[in-house]
Amino acid sequence: MTKIKYIIILLLFTLNSIFGQSEEGNIDNLPVHEYTITLKEELVSKAGKQVKGMTVNGTIPGPTLEFTEGEYAVIYVKNEMSVETSVHWHGLLLPNFYDGVPYLNTPPIEAGQTQKYEFPIKQSGTYWYHSHTMLQEQSGVYGSIVIKPKTKILNYDKDLVLVLSDWTNEKPMNVLRNLKRGNEWYNIKKGTATPLNQVIARGGFSAQLNFWRQRMESADIADVYYPAFLINGKQSIEYPEFKPGEKVRLRIIDGSASTSFWMTFGGETPLLVAADGNDVVPVKKNKTFIAVAETYDFIVIIPESGKIEYKITAQDGSGTATAYLGKGTVLPAMEIPKPDKIGMMKKMSKMKMKMGAHALKFQPNKDERFEMKDEYGMHMEGMSGMNMDKMEGMKMDNMKSKDSMNMNHSKMDGMKMENDDKMQGMDMYAEYNYDYLKSSNKTNYDKNVPVKEVLLNLTGNMNRYIWSLNGVPLSEADKIKISSKEVTRITFNNLTMMHHPMHLHGHFFRVINENGDYSPLKHTVNVPPMQKVVIEFYGNNGDEYGDWFFHCHILYHMMGGMARIVSYDTPRNPKMKEYPEQKLINETNKWYSWGMINAASHTTGFNLMTSNLRNQFNASLEYGWNKNLETEVTYERYLHDYLRVFGGVNIENENEKSLDQFKTTAVAGIRFLTPYLFSLDARIDNELRPRFSLGRSIMIFPKLSIFGYYEYQLDLGIVNNLPSNRNYSSETVWSAGASYILSRNFSAFSSYDNRFGVGVGLMTRF
Ligand SMILES: [Cu+2]
Question: Distances in Å between the alpha carbon of 471 and those of 186, 389, 462, 603?
């Protein structure tokens, strides 16, 4: 008996070493489909300028990797770049180790190295791949994946992949640095800035005050300025090869780093057949929103005469790109008007919603999710005891069909709400809901499976460009623990003015909509500003190692901290021992440095700043040609978004207009961004002299800002001897002026300073 056992074990052992590689090999004898892709740094020209980009097999986007369901994919990724990289297979269900998030599940691909990815293809549809290393995707590391089903279900003649993207001529890390410093330049360049004169002309001054009170400048829709948007690498591209009558399946992928688009089609209304790789009940739909990282498949029929225009319009209206299908005269696509930012501000401020939830909480470990949800966002008080939550509950549980939904709408109309604007507010983002997506199959889970509820408030701070969940950025957060025996239901409650396309690795989730049991399955869900979206998924991808990344797919938001690790709480893969996950986490808490030098007829100086999420160093110098000087070095700690404590050293000339003697003092205090966006500095020095200052800058015309600064220092003679018969002495400093933005890095300015006098000069940012 033991002998037989021994032989069996030996036999199994031998078999394993022949066919073996139990976790890496193709144990099921699936047909192997192999690809090699090469990543290179090359000069590319996309928007009228040659810049260094990152290509896949020499192109942007990279090649389409085609598979058939049931194959075994083997992909070699050669990194011929000077920096490490990674490739993530977006939307594919695969073993954790090949997911391609460096330091979390997959080792990074070092410069000069080749990495092998291999996994069985268990699905069909339109997907894509991209670098998951910081902002490399923005530089060009992305391409498409097409997986044919084992048996063809949909009726069409040809496939065409359309990869959408955004292109910048700047280094992506510089883009992020520019966002961190709060430069208005991108908004000016895009034509989305809202200077005060325009706001007032539109009767929006009280809305503006309302925004300022909540420490916000405006209702920003997108952050980055892009000189070009691309379809398959081009701003305009032609596909004349399609013949009249042919049915073409467009496989559309938004591979942008931060741009969502409105898509419109010329000619007949196309048929939407799939979303995020999954078939949906086909529906005729023209104007469709595609968020970053989503994919949609449409079937279009090439017309007998003329060519279809397929147009993408950046969500903030800052640009378009076009593809033409067929030959002949253009069948134009609908134009999408620019969103009206000032109009939105006016609507929002009428709705009385509270904005400005912290992106960086005072106590990141304290659970304040529900308080946050109750305090901020849109509330429908005054609606006969009905609140948003209840309405959503109704929508989810009872409103299974369009009819019942309409019925409820009319019921609500009948309630005669005192304020129509509240309704408008709800409708404002209605065009972004997913009700048009209905899964071909039931997607609901067994009612007996336990459900774990997770509330994630989406939080952000435009002033410092910090993005987080529940006020906690990735670097200060715990993992979200999930279990393979339960359904995880996540409620996203967006408390920001931005859309956030949230992507969960390794899973498809149901996006709960009016289709109830037939709610669609997706890998990326767009959460519109100030809206709630509920998703749920069954934990079925944590068999062996189960840490999966979960983040906003706007790369600059991910890098700003809007990310989590979703964990089945399994032990860490021993193959990842040399690659600590802390490295991935630290990428969302990097130090960014910037500075400014000004040279004017009355004064000259500089300001240097280096900052990560919680810490900041400042150094400044101001020298007046009339021999007044002040220089200061401080370290600051952010307690939360608006409040920091600081300490440092200040050096000033002792007597006015003389550099003979300097006074060096140690200073400590707080800096606070007040409602209405004033920078307050309250401090005390080592001579126990208190000092207060207040500063503010406002853009009043396009590119033209005015600024003012007031400072008051008091000496009560606690340490110093005051001049006789005085019981205090004081010093006031103030300045005011105007500056005009000439370019991203230059401004002209003119100011009066009561120490330095009046003058004009130039300011440069670097
Ligand atoms: Cu985001």
Answer: 26, 21, 13, 41
Q: Residue 750 Cα, ligand 1 centroid: separation in angstroms?
A: 38
In order of 84, 176, 501, 585, the CA distances from 131 in angstroms are 10, 17, 17, 16
Running DSSP on this structure, what letter comes out for residue 59? B
pLDDT tens track for 392-451: 433 433 333 333 334 344 444 434 343 444 455 556 788 899 999 999 999 999 999 999
229: nearest Cα among 161, 311, 166:
166
Distance 468 CA to ligand 1 centre (A): 9
Cα–Cα distance measured from residue 15 to residue 565, given in angstroms and rounded to the nearest whole number: 37
Please give the distance, rounded to the nearest whole angstrom, from the Cα atom of residue 556 to the centre of ligand 1.
8
Query: CB–CB of 325/248 below 8 Å?
Result: yes
CA 555 – ligand 1 centroid, Å: 8
Q: Which DSSP symbol is given to 141?
A: -
Rounded to the nearest angstrom, the distance between the alpha carbon of 292 and the centre of ligand 1 is: 10
- Cα 280 to Cα 325, 511, 518: the distances in Å are 24, 13, 9
Relative to beta strand 330-331, strand 615-624 is unpaired
CA–centroid distance, residue 219 to ligand 1 (Å) = 15
User: What is the distance in A from the centroid of ligand 1 to the CA of 188?
Assistant: 21
Expressed in angstroms and rounded, the spacing between residue 258 Cα and the centre of ligand 1 is: 8
Q: Tell me the CA–centroid distance for residue 420 and ligand 1, in Å.
A: 30
Query: What H or E segment, with its residue span, contains residue 372?
Result: helix 369-375
* Centre of ligand 1 from the C-alpha of residue 61, in Å: 23
Spacing, Cα 136 to ligand 1 middle (Å): 17
Omega of the bond leading into 102 within 30 degrees of 0 (cis): no
Residue type, 192: T
Residue 747 Cα to ligand 1 middle (Å): 30
Distance from residue 338's CA to the centre of ligand 1 (Å): 21
Residue 376, token pair as written in the block: 């901020």
Question: Residue 682 corresponds to which tokens in the numbers above?
Answer: 């309250």
3-class DSSP assignment, residue 104: coil
* One-letter amino acid of 647: G
Of 75, 74, 49, 72, give the one whose Cα is nearest residue 62: 75
Would you say 467 and 557 are in contact if contact means Cβ atoms under 8 Å apart? yes
Spacing, Cα 243 to ligand 1 middle (Å): 41
Alpha-carbon span 316 to 320, nearest angstrom: 10
Rounded distance between C-alpha atoms, residue 307 and residue 262, angstroms: 20
Instruction: Give the gyration radius of the chain's Cα atoms.
Output: 29
What is the spatial distance between Cα 260 and Cα 532, in angstroms, rounded to a whole number? 19
Distance between Cα 268 and ligand 1 center (Å): 34
The pLDDT tens digits of the residues spanning 292-319 come to 999 999 999 999 999 999 999 999 999 9
In this predicted structure, what is the pLDDT of residue 424? 52
CA 559 to ligand 1 centroid distance, Å: 10
pTM (2 decimals)?
0.90
Which residue do the tokens 């509240």 mark? Answer: 422
Q: Do 607 and 631 meet the contact criterion of CB atoms below 8 Å apart?
A: no
Residue with tokens 């007031």: 710
| Distance in Å, CA 552 to ligand 1 centroid | 5
Classify strands 236-239 and 320-325 as parallel, antiparallel or unpaired: parallel
Q: Any residues with CB less than 8 A from the CB of 200 and at least 6 apart, and which?
A: none
**Cβ(526)–Cβ(275) below 8 Å:** no
- Predicted confidence band of residue 383 (pLDDT cuts 50, 70, 90): very low
Backbone conformation region of residue 619, classed left if phi is above 0, alpha if psi is from -120 to 50, else beta: beta
**Class of residue 725 by CB neighbours under 10 A (exposed 0-12, middle 13-18, buried 19+):** exposed
Q: 137-165 burial string, b = 16+ CB within 10 Å, else e? A: bbbbbbbbbbbbeeeeeeebeeebbbbbb
